[in-house]
Design brief:
The complex is a heterodimer of chains A (200) and B (102). Chain A contains eight helices and four strands; from the N terminus they run αααααααββαββ. Chain A is an alpha+beta fold and 200 residues long. The longest helix of chain B is centred in the C-terminal third of the chain and has 15 residues. The radius of gyration of chain B is 14 Å and the shape is elongated. Helix content of chain B is 51%, strand content 12%. Classes of the chains: A alpha+beta (200), B mainly alpha (102). Chains A and B meet through α3 and α4 of A and α2 and α3 of B.
């Protein structure tokens, strides 16, 4: 009896209990709800239910039930949404002029704001693309004093101190713009952007 | 919607308190339907407009958690679920539930 009590009260047992009833349910559920589409209210609903209503002792089994449901119900919807996005027939046209002015220079570039995943998924226009490219590729450059300049026609990025980075950034922007349906002609340090192949 | 034991049980739970707000977990407990079946059913009921949903007022939440989602029966839902229960009373498949239907 003493040995049993000793085993139950030992540190490893305590850690196991904390893990199974404390940490694991919330952690697993947050992973499970990712199987639902991004805007599905079930994501928030299940997490709220877990913390607000489900008794701690029942949480592991309840979370396991959610895994089953998510696999058979959420995942197909999620895959369908991804496929629909990837094979959408045409994209909305974007106004090139004006949007390029939006990110004018390194000094006005807001480095604190990260583009959301949703924005990345809806990278339909040049503004979003430049935002994304600007965040991922130009942020560090701008911080170190590189010249970042956008003009209405060409997209220019000059990095005298690091030509390799310059080429990399231009290649990245070119890739993003082409994926959006823009016709992009690349010069040495700029991209000429037109909309000629915008609609299919 | 297909008439199943789960639907009848949920209908009974909802019609016990037709005017009040119903929360997912409590509904699961009161109806005896496990959550893996209940939530898809609630989604179908929302699609059919038998239910409406809403979110808990965040200012009333004291814990650090997202607001809960609640469900309310619509008048259409009351009629439809009432009809489901009415039919279930005379259906041999739901004989084991009759003690709750009366």
């Amino acid at each position: 009896m003493t040995e049993l009590l000793h085993t139950v009260a030992s540190w490893p047992s305590l850690l196991l209990v904390v893990l199974v009833f404390g940490f694991a349910p919330g952690f697993c559920l947050r992973l499970i709800v990712l199987a639902y589409p991004r805007n599905d209210p079930r994501r928030t609903e299940l997490i709220a239910e877990l913390y607000a209503a489900v008794p701690r002792l029942q949480r592991p089994l309840w979370v396991a039930e959610q895994l089953e449901t998510a696999l058979f119900e959420g995942l197909p919807h999620r895959l369908t949404a991804v496929l629909r996005w990837a094979t959408r027939p045409h994209r909305k046209p974007a106004k090139v002029l004006g949007m390029l002015d939006w990110i004018r220079s390194a000094s006005t570039f807001d480095r604190r704001t990260r583009p959301t995943n949703q924005l990345e998924r809806r990278a339909q226009n040049i503004r979003n693309l430049l935002w994304i490219a600007g965040y991922h590729e130009l942020r560090n450059g701008a911080r170190h004093g590189f010249v970042v300049e956008y003009a209405p026609g060409p997209v220019t990025y000059i990095d005298d101190q690091n030509p390799e980075r310059e080429q990399r950034v231009l290649a990245r922007i070119q890739q993003l713009l082409r994926r959006c349906g823009y016709l992009v002609v690349r010069d040495e340090d700029s991209l000429q952007v037109t909309r000629s192949n915008w609609t299919r | 919607m297909r008439k199943t034991h789960a639907l009848v049980q949920v209908a009974m739970a909802l019609l016990d308190e037709p005017a009040s707000r119903h929360w997912g977990y409590e509904l699961s407990k009161r109806s005896g339907v496990r959550s893996g079946v209940l939530y898809p059913m609630l989604t179908r009921m929302l699609t059919e407009r038998w239910l409406t949903d809403g979110w808990e007022d965040p200012t009333t939440i004291q814990d650090k958690r997202p607001p809960r989602r609640y469900y309310e029966l619509t008048s259409k839902g009351q009629q439809e679920l009432g009809a489901v229960l009415q039919q279930a009373r005379h259906d041999a498949r739901f004989a084991n539930l009759r003690w709750r239907l009366t």
